[in-house]
Design goal:
The protein has a single domain, classed as Aldolase class I (TIM Barrel, Alpha-Beta Barrel). Strands 3-4-6-9-10-11-12-13 form an eight-stranded parallel barrel, surrounded by seven helices. It has a two-stranded antiparallel ribbon with strand order 1-2. The two termini are 33 Å apart. Helix 3 packs parallel to helix 6 and helix 7 packs across helix 8. The chain is of the alpha/beta class. It is globular, with a radius of gyration of 20 Å. The protein has twelve helices and 13 strands. The structure holds flavin mononucleotide (FMN). The site of flavin mononucleotide has 20 residues, from strand 4, strand 13 and helix 10.
C-alpha cells in the first residue's frame, strides 16, 4: 500500500513534504509582552523535530487588545519579530514549513476592559459585554492585520493563516448570532463578510505573492439562526477570488459549549462541502489522531491537509512513528533518530 499522507502538497511557491500539519494551539505560555520565551521555542522546536509537514503557530495577536489572554504571543509590534524569527528559523531548518496564525480575540478577550466586538453582545457572563466597534476601530483592526503580516514576513514565516473561527473577532462579524450591526458590516452575508475580506486584502498586500494564505473559517455555528455551510461555501468562493489558497474548515464555538457531536473526523463533512462547492483546497481538524483515518481523508480527496492538535501535544513525534507504520522513509532532522526508528533495531 502506498501512503497518501506522506505525499507533498504545493500551495503557490511552498511545497509541504507531507499532509500533516500541527494545528494552532494557544499555550498561554508566552511572556506578558507577547514575546517568545524559551518555553515557546522548545515547544515548537520539539514538534519541528517530529516529522510533520507544517506547524501552524498558536494565535498571534495583531493588537494588544486582541489578545485572548495576557500570555498570548504577539505580532503587534516590531520588538516581537526577533523571537518569532528564531522559532521560524529553527522550524524551517528542520524541513518543516511554518504558518503564523493572525488573530484578534474580539469579545472573547479575557482582557475585558479593552474587549471590542461587532455588537454589544456578551459571549458569556464572565467576559461580559464588549464595546461596539466604531468605523475607526474597524479600520484600525484591518490595518493592524496588514502590519502584522508585514512583521510575519520579516520573521520568515512560510505561510499565514487568518483566524476567522472559534468565536473570535472575525467569526463574530460573520455570524448573525454576534453581529446585529445596521451599517455596511452587518445584515447580509456580504456585509458580515466585509471585515474578513478587508483583512484578506490588507494581509495579501503585505504578504509575498509566492507565499500561501490560509483562512481558518467557521463553516457552521450548528445553532438556529447562525452561520450555515451554505454561507461558508459562498464566503469561501469570495476568499478564493481574493487570493486565499486554502480554507481550514471548522465549526462551532460562537457560544460556550460545542453544540454538535464529536467523533474522529467530526468536521470533515464541512471541509468536503467547501472543497466541492467553492473549488478551493481545504484542511480538516477534529479528533484526527489515527493514521488510517488520515490516509482515508487524503486518499479519498476529502481534504488536502490534516490538521492535528492534541495528538501532537501528547506526542511530538507522532508523524515519525506514523511514517514508520506506513513504511515510508522520511528525512529526519536529526539523522541519529534513525537508530530508534529503524532500520537499526539495536542500541549500543
Ligand atoms: C490547548 C488548545 C489550544 C488551542 N488553541 C487554538 C488556537 O490558538 N487557534 C486555533 O485556531 N485553534 C486552537 N485550538 C483548536 C485546535 O487547533 C484544533 O482545531 C482542535 O483542538 C481540534 O483538533 P484535535 O482534536 O486534533 O485537537 C486549540 C486547541 C487546544 C486543545
Amino acid at each position: 500500500m502506498t501512503s497518501n499522507v506522506f505525499t507533498p502538497l504545493t500551495l503557490r511557491g511552498l511545497t509541504l513534504r507531507n499532509r500533516l500539519v500541527m494545528s494552532p494551539m494557544l499555550m498561554y505560555a508566552a511572556d506578558e509582552d507577547g514575546l517568545v520565551n524559551d518555553r515557546t521555542f522548545v515547544h515548537y522546536g520539539a514538534r519541528a523535530l517530529g516529522g510533520v509537514g507544517m506547524i501552524a503557530t498558536e494565535v498571534l495577536a495583531v493588537e494588544a487588545r486582541g489578545r485572548i489572554s495576557a500570555r498570548d504571543l504577539g505580532v503587534w509590534e516590531d520588538g516581537q519579530i526577533e523571537g518569532l524569527r528564531r522559532v521560524a528559523g529553527f522550524v524551517r531548518g528542520c524541513g518543516v514549513a511554518i504558518c503564523g496564525q493572525l488573530a484578534h480575540a474580539g469579545r472573547k478577550s479575557m482582557l475585558t476592559a479593552t474587549a471590542i466586538a461587532p455588537s454589544a453582545l456578551a459571549y458569556d457572563e464572565t467576559l461580559g459585554v464588549p464595546q461596539t466597534m466604531s468605523a475607526t476601530d474597524i479600520a484600525d483592526v484591518v490595518a493592524a492585520f496588514g502590519r502584522a503580516a508585514s512583521r510575519a514576513r520579516e520573521a520568515g514565516f512560510d505561510a499565514l493563516q487568518i483566524h476567522a473561527a472559534n468565536g473570535y473577532l472575525i467569526h463574530e462579524f460573520l455570524t448573525p448570532l454576534a453581529n446585529v450591526r445596521r451599517d455596511g458590516y452587518g445584515g447580509t452575508l456580504a456585509n458580515r463578510a466585509r471585515l474578513l475580506l478587508e483583512v484578506v486584502g490588507a494581509v495579501r498586500a503585505q504578504w509575498p505573492g509566492d507565499k500561501p494564505l490560509l483562512v481558518r473559517l467557521c463553516c457552521s455555528d450548528l445553532l438556529e439562526g447562525g452561520l450555515t455551510i451554505e454561507d461558508a461555501i459562498a464566503v469561501s468562493r469570495w476568499l478564493r477570488e481574493a487570493g486565499v489558497d486554502l480554507v481550514d474548515a471548522t465549526t462551532g464555538n460562537i457560544l460556550p459549549g460545542y453544540p454538535g457531536p464529536v467523533y474522529p473526523g467530526y468536521q470533515l463533512v464541512y471541509a468536503e462541502r467547501v472543497r466541492a462547492g467553492a473549488g478551493i483546497p481545504v484542511a480538516s481538524s477534529g479528533s484526527i489522531a489515527a493514521l488510517d483515518l488520515a490516509e482515508e481523508i487524503i486518499g479519498a480527496g476529502r481534504a488536502d491537509l490534516v490538521f492535528m492538535g492534541r495528538a501532537l501535544l501528547r506526542n511530538p513525534f507522532w508523524a515519525i512513528e506514523a511514517a514508520r507504520t506506513a513504511g515510508v522513509a522520511i528525512e529526519l532532522p536529526i539523522p541519529t533518530y534513525a537508530r530508534a526508528t529503524g532500520p537499526f533495531e539495536r542500541g549500543y
